[in-house]
Design a protein that fits this description.
Elements (H helix, E strand, L loop, with lengths): L8 H19 L6 H8 L3 H7 L3 H23 L6 H18 L1 H9 L6 H27 L8 H13 L1 H4 L8 H15 L13
Amino acid sequence: MARTTGSDGERTEAAIRDAATALIARHGYEAMSMRQLAGEVGVQAAALYRYFPTKEDLLFSLMLEHMQALLAAWQEARPASTLPRVRLSAFVENHIAFHIERRHSTHVSNMELRSLSPERLTRILKLRTTYEKELRTILRDGAATDAFAADDIELTAMALIQMMTGVIVWFRPDERLSVAGVTETYLRMTMRLVGANEAREDPHVY
């Protein structure tokens, strides 16, 4: 059991969110009880409802924060270059680093969509679409300039997202591969998947 966080509201809320993310990732949303969560944080169960009136409010908040943080991370990592290959490399590197760092949060966001109400599910899916559109735009730009030879942009984008996010299932930092090593390997696989043409220069870049 974790130690009581204290009376500071922000620290308590952060502790609730962290504990909930770990518990849901480990046991599933339906299996986690608010009483169990309160015990993990070290507060009375009634105290949780001051921060999250319902259990679904908590889940939605976790998923919303995850997607907003992912979009913000990409905005920060987005390169100035217009070259599709450079942009795709930056996207892959950022996606892998973000999801490895947020393994539990990623698991919750991917596995518990079914637990959201229709209205909240729609909001999360819109954010996911916004993020995935960034990748599709890169792939379309690459195809338009012959930098990439991907025929089906939608399918290729979906395959890349699944491949990169799937790293969290098997990657462990204490094993033979480092984050940098995994990223380098995935970059090579990504470029092969999109049919990257290293010799092709974007005609719009001078």
